[in-house]
Design goal:
Isopropylmalate Dehydrogenase, 12 helices, binds manganese (II) ion, 12 strands, binds 3-isopropylmalic acid, binds nicotinamide-adenine-dinucleotide, 354 residues, 40% helix, 2 domains, alpha/beta, single chain, globular
């Protein structure tokens, strides 16, 4: 039996609670099968926590995350998010020093016909967005008066360099080209971004192909020729928007997992979607993004790639059996709720090793 790994669990708000419960159950089952010893501890975080305690990110949650081997987050937020303090997410990312947010876009072949796209457009899609998470519009100064508002967008060379290294490393591991996305025809931050990417790749990744693309063109290519993409590396805001767009290739926002990395310290794993107030509490949310986030955790933070593969295989098998949450169903297909979908996944995980 391996040494016990500690996982901090932050279910958060809305459907975050449902999909996290599903992901933890599936991870526990897959880990038991592989003899991987895990300890889970839940912490309050997010908008409900803010309303109850005046902070979305209590000190005990911060300490619990910093002391864990990895953090699993559901989602945070309410129907009317007006203040990012209510979410706690930007503070959590900062507290853990996270800067590279990896968002894989992979199409389960069982769902290739379940998207608004022709099957031949989506069937070979298997790329990854590497989103910068520590600077840009998210962390700049803001001003707001009655008739004028500003949001500073800043980037430092060091932050771009480390993100370029993350993207280059992923490109090298996957043996694919890296497309760096910017708005160099307008933005100063993009000029520094493009020059820095060019320099880092020339010096450190001469074996990895680098291309540059303007973000407006990328928004189009992402849905016309997504099969041509390998690694899409971009700044904070562009990465946020492009990932929701690209989720549609995989069947919808409920499908995408993510992992956010800094060094050193625990990584954070969470589905790309939010708290979905429109469906929260109904038990119909799609837990695949959360389950696959836990699979990414098994691979990257728990030293258990076989557990990750088993979880992915079980999700694939549940889809092959025809299990579909409402967001994935097409043409009158029968649907199952979050719990029944989770049970369908669990049915494909082997019994624990005795
Ligand atoms: P959202 O991602 O919560 O939902 C967008 C749409 O996608 C909704 O129609 C929702 O029902 C659907 N959807 C999302 N996830 C789904 C799932 N797993 N299964 C089925 N359908 C799913 O975005 P929103 O409604 O714009 O934002 C709601 C709140 O979530 C806001 O407060 C926002 O700030 C927050 N948010 C948080 C995160 C996060 O925690 N990482 C991410 C995005 C948005
Ligand atoms: C995401 C979310 C967050 C972001 C919000 C809730 C602050 O949309 O993780 O994609 O923009 O980073
Ligand atoms: Mn987002």
């Amino acid at each position: 039996m391996s040494e016990t790994k500690k996982i901090a669990v932050l279910p958060g708000d809305g459907i975050g609670v449902e999909v996290t419960a599903s992901a933890v159950t599936v991870l526990k089952a897959a880990a038991a099968t592989a003899g991987l010893s895990l300890e889970f501890e839940e912490f309050p975080f997010g908008t409900d926590c803010y309303r109850a305690n005046g902070t979305a990110f209590p000190d005990a949650t911060r300490a619990g995350c910093q002391g864990a081997d990895a953090v699993l987050l559901g989602a945070v937020g309410s129907a009317n998010p007006t203040n990012h303090d209510e979410l706690g997410l930007l503070d959590l990312r900062k507290a853990l020093g996270l800067y590279a947010n990896l968002r894989p876009i992979k199409v389960f072949s069982e769902l290739a016909h379940a998207t608004p796209f022709r099957a031949e457009v989506v069937q070979d899609v298997d790329f990854i967005i590497v989103r910068e998470l520590s600077e840009g519009l998210y962390y700049g100064d803001r001003t707001l008066t009655e008739d004028r508002a500003t949001d500073e967008c800043f980037y430092t060379k060091g932050a771009i360099e480390r993100l370029a290294r993350s993207a280059g490393t992923v490109g090298r591991e996957r043996g694919v080209k890296v497309t760096s996305v910017d708005k160099v025809n307008v933005l100063a931050t993009s000029k520094l971004w493009r020059a820095t990417f060019t320099e880092v790749f020339a010096n450190e990744f001469p074996d990895v192909e680098l291309e540059h693309m303007l973000v407006d063109a990328m928004a189009m290519i992402a849905i016309t020729h997504p099969g041509r993409l390998g690694v899409v590396a971009t700044e904070n805001t562009f990465g946020d928007i492009l990932s929701d767009e690209c989720s549609v290739l995989a069947g919808g926002l409920g499908m995408l997992p993510s992992g956010s990395f800094g060094d050193p310290g625990p990584a954070l794993y969470e589905p790309v979607h939010g708290s979905a107030p429109d469906i929260a509490g109904k038990g119909i949310s799609n837990p695949i993004g959360a389950i696959m986030s836990a699979a990414m955790m098994a691979e990257h933070s728990l030293g258990a790639p076989a557990v990750a593969r088993a979880m992915e295989a079980a999700v694939t098998a549940a889809l092959a059996d025809g299990a579909r949450t409402a967001d994935l169903a097409r043409n009158g297909e029968a649907t199952v709720g979050t719990q029944a979908f989770t049970d369908a996944v669990l049915a494909h995980l082997a019994s624990p090793v005795s």
